Structures are given as C-alpha cells and as structure tokens.
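Sanity check

After download, print the first record. It should look like this:
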Amino acid sequence: MRGRPIDVRKSAVLLIAVVGLTACNDTDAASPAPSKASPSATATSPAPTPTPTHRRLKAGAKGEDVKALQRRLKELNYDPGKVDGKYGPSTQTAVWAFQAVNRLKQKTTLGKSFWEALDAPKEPRPMAKKREKNRVDVDLKRQYLVLYKDGKPRLISHISSGSGEYYCAKDRGATVPRCRYATTGTGDFRTGRRASGWERSPLGQLYNPIYFNGGIAFHGALDVPKYPASHGCLRMPMHIAEYFPDLLGTNVPVHVRRPR
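Expected structure tokens:
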C-alpha cells in the first residue's frame, strides 16, 4: 500500500521532464538563430542609390529629384513653373538663368558643378551704380533680368534680346518699310505703356507687353531660345509673363547693360 504513492510521484516527475523537453524543442523550431551573411555576399551587395542632388539631369528627365531641383530654383527666385517632377521648357529656362547668374557653362546635362552652385548660389550682380530698391536689371550678355522689390531679388528670369540681324519692316502708320539692325539698346529707362493679353505689332504679337524704351518692351513669347533672337524687345517665358505685370509697376527704373 505504501509503494503505490511513490510510483505516482515518479511518474509525475518523468511526465514533467518529457513536457519540458518538448517545449524547448518547439521554441527552438519556431525561432531559429539568424543566419550570418557570408563575406562574399556582403562584397557583392549593390552600391547605394545616389542622392537626388548628385544625379545627372537633363531636359526630359522625370522624378522626385526633378521636383527637388524645381523647389530649390523657386526658393532662389528662379521660376521653373509647376513643381511637377518634369524637366520641361519652363524648368529649362530657369536653369539657364541660374547658370548665367552663377557664371556656369550652359550645358544640357546638369552635373557636379551645377549642384555645387545650387548649394551655394551667387547673388546677381547689379547692372548700374544707382541701385533703386524697386527696379529691373537686364544683362544682355548673359540673357537674364532681375526684378528687385524692396532691395531684394524677387524674380530672376531668362530672356532673349535683339538678335543683331538686319531686317526691314513698316512701323505703325508708315507706308514705306524701314531697315535696321535688331538690337536692344543699353541705358537707363523707365517702364511706361502696357497692354493686357496679346498685342499685335508690326513685327509680331507680344504677350502682356510693358514698354520701357520707345517700342522696346518686356513681353511673353512662345519662343524664348537660349540665344538673342528678337527684333529688339526682351522676350520672356509665357508662364512668367502671366504675372510679370503684377510685379512691375509704371515708372519703375530699368537698367540695361552688356557687362564683361
């Protein structure tokens, strides 16, 4: 009679030992030790993707890095149009203006020198000794203008000035054509007459023109190439011409120069 309880206790101890061993085995199976990467696997891992500011970009590119470029240009008062991640004509003209102000070669592909300049940009150089707080400076050599508000650049835009070519055309009210060279004169002027929308002139149509030197005006155009191409006016991109008259009042000084 006394031997039976002893047998029960031994059985219980053996059962607990079996359950304990089974539980450890289940735990080990559910959580295997992480495998270590071999040296060869580490050596062949792909290189990290370059940051957006170091990727080489050119017209036609798309992506988040283009958006980053557009945001930075807008922050510096170069208007690239919509921040949509598409490197189109509006972004291209803003890049041209930035390259001109920073004395960079206007290469089609944006590389290391461009990104470095974008991180540490230069201020545009004043065109005249007299530096009114509200004015427009025009650099004919590098094809850009700077509109100042309260002494600071509010807008920096690419332009296309007089081509220098010889042409003949009738002036308003004239019966005989007059021949001349397509030049944009240098000097100090002030803004005057303006028109809203498209205005037809003897030499073509001007969008939102603001005249500052006789028949010479700032105006929007459908074609604003990298080089001088107008009959003497200062062409600017259409997306900028849309609001340019809102920024530039009447009788505002305009300094046009051709610096070295």
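If your output differs, re-run the checksum step. Summary of this record's structure: The chain has seven helices and 13 strands.
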